[in-house]
Structure formats: structure tokens, C-alpha cells
Amino acid sequence: MAKKILCPDCINRVDPQKLYYYCRSFGEVIEAITTKEKKNGVKCRTDGCNNAHIILQICPYCYKNENDINIIPNEFIDCDTINLNLIGGNCSGSTNYLHIMLNELSIMNGIVTTPITAQTKETHNTIYEDIYINHEKPPPTVCGYTESSIWKLKNINKKKGNKVFTKLFNIYNGAGEDYCDMIINPQIERIITESNLIIFVIDPLEFDGLRNSLNDDDYQTSTFDQYAQSSKIRFNSLNIISNVADCIRVHRGINNYKTIDMLVAVVFSKMDLFFDKFKVDLPNVSQINPHNRLGHFDSKDCEIVNKEMRAWINNFAPSFITLLDANFNAKKCKFFGISSYGSPPKSEIELPNEILPHRVLDPILWLLAEKGFIDKI
Ligand SMILES: Nc1nc2c(ncn2[C@@H]2O[C@H](COP(=O)(O)OP(=O)(O)OP(=O)(O)O)[C@@H](O)[C@H]2O)c(=O)[nH]1
Ligand SMILES: [Mg+2]
Ligand SMILES: [Zn+2]
Ligand SMILES: [Zn+2]
Q1: Domain at 78-370: CATH architecture
Q2: Which listed site, 97, 122, 229, 261, has its alpha carbon 20 to 30 Å from 252?
């Protein structure tokens, strides 16, 4: 049986034999496909339509009517898909991280990134403009946001004959609140359980020892107003990690005695705030690895960073490490330290004049190397 396709809109798995088809010329939707049609290619049934082969497929689960069509991009059928879920508490820096990382990926040697849907392009461009052109913080993600950012990735250094190594990257990044309230959002539960990769974005400011090491100004500019001003406890990452692990356990039938065998990148954001104070503890994380931009992955450097970050966090939040290791296979779980901006924001609204991302590609290069998409050195 052909592999099931993940509908990016409703996050249900669809048997390719059960897809509906849509004709762009006449807006006709064909639901029941005959065996003969399957063999010869589906054709529009409207008289006078010269659109011989209908190639636009739609998902039978989320199709409502002919005025409300979600097309499943062809790439979901042709390419190997990586479903990535970027999970972070509110204000952890996940939205900034995602779009700055995508931008860095697009200028990396040998990798070609192409947005697959108009929505993906528009959302990315808007956030890019906020950050790089207007130097403003992008707005917080709204609750219930489940749109995915869909990119085609080509590695031109991995050509075989005239075939270029290609993967589809389907990325979800919701609002922090939603990962704590999954029970009321089955769609978010499906996103988590259908992902083959997870990036946890962790805000180091949530740990008392680290937050207290900063002056008030740095704390306020590196968080959203409403959190800085209130003493309200934010949803913390321990809560999120245990929710996400429970969700995966329930849906995949993994009991509590076993760890979850999944690639997990644990990414500490906003590290620009700590490099000066913790240079002794973070001699490698605070340095940029030159291999990053060259399109391959440096396993040795990754291991050094992993150890350094684990030891550093263990000083401030040992319970974080205990909880993570109790739920996820530590061999498939790596720690990273990044800064999206490279330095703290100038004010509560304004970003630094120059955005100098620090090690933002490390986690993604590790995941792509594990998936065989780029080479390790
Ligand atoms: N110092 C510093 N602050 C950062 C960095 N990245 C993000 N921030 C701060 O963190 C805030 C939140 O960032 P977002 O990317 O919107 O966080 P989020 O995880 O998407 O938050 P929600 O969408 O509300 O869940 C930003 O407005 C910045 O103030 C960074 O690299 N350095
Ligand atoms: Mg966000
Ligand atoms: Zn669907
Ligand atoms: Zn037609």
C-alpha cells in the first residue's frame, strides 16, 4: 500500500487512493474515482473542459465545499516529508528563531529553500520584514494557530546523476499557551504525534538563577511587556515537556517505563544575554562554528556544545534535565545554545540595528544530518 499522506491543514493521514481531485478551470470536485480513472489519470468530467489531467488533490477530511478548497501540494506526494514541530512556552523566542533560522538556511552554501504555499511565503516575508527591515519584534503567535510553514529543501552538493537530493519540510510552530492546553485542541495533539522531529525552544529566563543574573533592563527588553511587568508565572517548559511527552505516549502507546525514541533538539534561546557572564562555563557555545555556513554538519562541535549546555543548565535547573531524560531517549536528544538576534533588543519594541544570528543553524543541521540530508564531518 502506498504511504499515507499527511494533510497539512487538518493533520489527518490520507490514503492516496482516497484523495479527492479538483479542477481549477471549472471548480469541479471529483470525490469518487473509478479504478479505470486511477489507472489512466483522473480527468475532469465537465463537458468542454480541456483540463485533461487534474493534478490538484484535496483532502477528503477537510473538504467542505467548492468555495473552500485546501489543495495538498504535489510535493507531499512526490517528496520525502519531514514534519517538524517547534515547541516553546509563550515568549520563549520560537517565532523569531524559526524565521531567522529559515533565513540563514536560505543563504547557506549548497542548500536551496523554496516556500511551497503562498501562505508560507507571505507569513515568512512579513516576519522577515519586521525583524530585518523595521527592526521590530514580530507579534506573539495567536492561540490556536496551526498553520504550517512548508518548504522544499534541495541539497545541490548531493546530486546523483540529474537527481538533486530533495526533502519537504513541513514546520509547525504554535502559540506557547496551546502546548499547555492540548486537551482542548485535538489538532495540536495531532501535530505533536505526527511530527518526526521536535525542537523544544527553551527560554533561559524562566529559570530563577539565570533571570536573577540579569539587570532589569535586559530582562524587560528580552520578553514581552505583559510578562515583564507582571509577576504572573508563565507556563514553564517543565509543564510543556511533560504535556508533550504524555501526548506522544498516549497516541503512540508508549508506556511510562520507556523513553520516547525520537530526535529532539533542546534549544536554549536568547543566549546573547549570558555569554559575557558565563564565558568560563560556555567557552564553545559562545563561539561561532565556521562549518555551519558551509553546508555540512560538524558532529564533534555538536557534542561539545551538547555537553557544555547540559552542564550549564544542570547548575540552574537540574529538574529540567531529570524530566527530559525520564521522557526522551538521551542518545537522540541534543542541547543547543543560540541567539536569534546576536545581542539583546534595544528596547521593548526595537531590535538591534544589526541582526547577527548566533549558532541558529546548529540544531537544524544536526536534524538534517540525522535524516541523511546533509553530510557529517
Ligand atoms: N535577548 C534576546 N531576546 C530575544 C531573542 N529572540 C527573542 N527574544 C525575545 O523574546 C520575545 C518573544 O519572542 P517570540 O519569538 O515572539 O516568542 P514565541 O515563543 O514565538 O512566543 P509566543 O508566540 O507568544 O508563544 C521577543 O519579542 C524578544 O523580546 C534573542 O535572540 N535574544
Ligand atoms: Mg510565536
Ligand atoms: Zn485535511
Ligand atoms: Zn475541468
Answers
A1: 3-Layer(aba) Sandwich (3.40)
A2: 97
d(CA 89, CA 78): 34
Ligand 4 mean position, distance from CA 20 (Å): 14
How far apart (Å, rounded) are the C-alpha atoms in residues 352 and 218? 13
Distance of alpha carbon 31 from alpha carbon 4, whole angstroms: 18
Residues with a CB atom less than 6 Å from ligand 1: 88, 90-96, 137-138, 140-141, 175-176, 222-224, 269-270, 272-273, 339-341, 344-345
Length of the chain: 377
Query: In sequence order, what DSSP letters do the residues of 182-198 get, joined into one string?
Result: GGG-HHHHHHHHH-SEE
Q: Which of 305, 297, 304, 266 is nearest to 372 (CA)?
A: 297
Query: pTM value?
Result: 0.94
Short-list 163, 194, 167, 155, CA closest to 78 = 167
pLDDT tens digit at each of 377 positions of the chain: 578 999 999 999 999 889 999 988 888 888 888 888 878 878 888 888 877 777 789 999 999 888 888 899 989 988 999 999 999 988 899 999 999 999 999 998 889 999 999 999 999 999 999 999 999 999 999 989 999 999 999 999 888 888 889 999 999 999 988 888 666 788 999 999 999 999 999 999 999 899 889 888 888 888 875 554 454 455 588 989 999 999 999 999 999 999 999 999 999 999 999 999 999 999 999 998 766 666 678 999 999 999 999 999 999 999 999 999 999 999 999 999 999 999 999 988 899 999 999 999 999 999 999 999 998 88
Atom from ligand 1 closest to the CA of residue 175: 25
Angstrom distance (rounded) from CA 141 to CA 139 = 6
Q: How many helices and strands in the chain, by DSSP H and E? A: 12, 13
Long-range contacts of 71-78 (CB under 8 A, 24+ apart): 71/22, 72/5, 72/7, 72/8, 72/14, 72/19, 73/8, 73/116, 73/117, 73/150, 75/116, 75/150, 75/152, 75/168, 76/5, 76/6, 76/8, 76/168, 76/170, 77/5, 77/16
The boundaries of every CATH 3.40.50.300 domain in the chain are 78-370
| C-alpha of residue 204 to centroid of ligand 1, in Å | 11
- Compute, in angstroms, the gap from residue 69 CA to the centroid of ligand 4: 15
